[in-house]
Amino acid sequence: MKNHLLQLLQLDLFFREYKFALLCFFTAFVVTLITIPPIISLIRRYSLYDMPNARKEHAAPIPTMGGVAIIAGMLIALLLWFPFSNSVVQISFFFCITVLFGLGLMDDLKDLSAKYKFIVQFGLATIIALSGIRITSFDGLLGLQELPVMAQYSFTILAIVGITNAFNLIDGIDGLAGGIGFMSLTTIGIFLTSAGDMNTALIAFSLGGGILAFMYFNINPAKIFMGDTGSLVLGFIIAVLCIRLMDVNIAAAKPVIPHAPVFVLSIVLIPVFDTIRVFALRIWNGKSPFSPDKTHIHHLLTNQDFSHGFTTKVICFLHGFILIEAYWLVNLRQEFVLLILITFMLLITVILKNAGLLFRKRISRNSTV
């Protein structure tokens, strides 16, 4: 009887802790789910398609700007359940989301230059840093604790712009950016709640609900893409929430994540590592880091005739494994965990690049037997 009552008490505490998180999640899910079909019809009427080109995987025009429905779902959920205030942090954050949403919308409609988008992103990242959301400490990583003020601003701006564009660049095949984004947002939301920052966690759960609904229409074969309208906002919010998680965890009397910087890095590791790898390869080959090609992590499989669906499942599985691995290893020295994660990504890159050869060898052996 006592055990039964204890289980009920734990369930009640869990529900109370995640009550508004679940309300935000399901509200955003429903709003996005019912908003996407009209958006697809509107896009088809005005021919606002994502057209195939040298750097894209789809062969036929596909409706884009699914991000409009995702952001609409998130904002309506927050309007209903989020405790808004006049704090500088909140005003700055939602101002930046509005501007970035407009930037993504313009890019989907008119294909803006990368230079212009970078200038706006650097400006928005600076606003976030000035508002108080900054990487203040490396928590002992590489022997670094609290950072000098200028280093805080520099690392924060670089991290926000880098992660924003990393998610934008990995949005190359059906379901990939959405799958990684949903897993990352859910993880951030859970740990923010555990750290006591339930209000900020609502943003993660709201966007996560919208992303999950969008994926119903985006899983291969995709009926709509999120476009830059969605991927830029997705990357930006994940970047800001990751920094917030680090700050809240370090400031907590009892941190929920030992060595938060490395764990937070694992949340964005695949997009960030892939972007750095691709840019480095392009520069090594004497090309612009922004020149179009098909060398991203998803291309390593699709170039070998693996389907979009299979490729997305493999990379999302790897992302989940990295999150679990990083959490399992949190009690190790941070530098060891960082080395393990980087080694794992290098190994995975080699395996994925040669997956077709490995599969062909296996098939040929089975056929000879």
Sequence-ordered SSE layout with sheet pairings:
Elements: H1 2-45, E1 49-50, E2 62-63, H2 67-81, H3 88-110, H4 114-131, H5 149-170, H6 176-194, H7 198-218, H8 227-251, H9 260-267, H10 269-284, H11 299-302, H12 308-328, H13 334-353, H14 355-368
Antiparallel strand pairs: 1-2
Describe the structure.
This protein is mostly helical. It has helices spanning 2-45, 67-81, 88-110, 114-131, 149-170, 176-194, 198-218, 227-251, 260-267, 269-284, 299-302, 308-328, 334-353, 355-368; strands at 49-50, 62-63. It has a two-stranded antiparallel ribbon. The protein is globular and about 55 Å long. 46% of the residues are buried.
Give the terminus-to-terminus CA distance. Answer: 60 Å
Which stretches are poorly predicted, pLDDT < 50 over at least 5 residues? 1-13, 362-369
What structural class do you assign from the helix and strand content? mainly alpha
Radius of gyration, CA atoms, in whole angstroms: 21 Å
Biggest beta sheet summary: 2 strands, antiparallel
Classify the beta-strand content into a percent band.
under 5%
Determine the mean pLDDT.
Answer: 88
Q: State the helicity in percent bands.
A: over 70%
**What is the number of domains?**
1
Task: Tell me the series of helices and strands, N- to C-terminal.
Answer: HEEHHHHHHHHHHHHH
Beta strand count: 2
Number of helices: 14
Q: Largest sheet, order of strands side by side?
A: 1-2
- Overall 3D form: globular
Quick description:
With 369 residues, the chain is mostly helical. It is built from 14 helices and two strands.
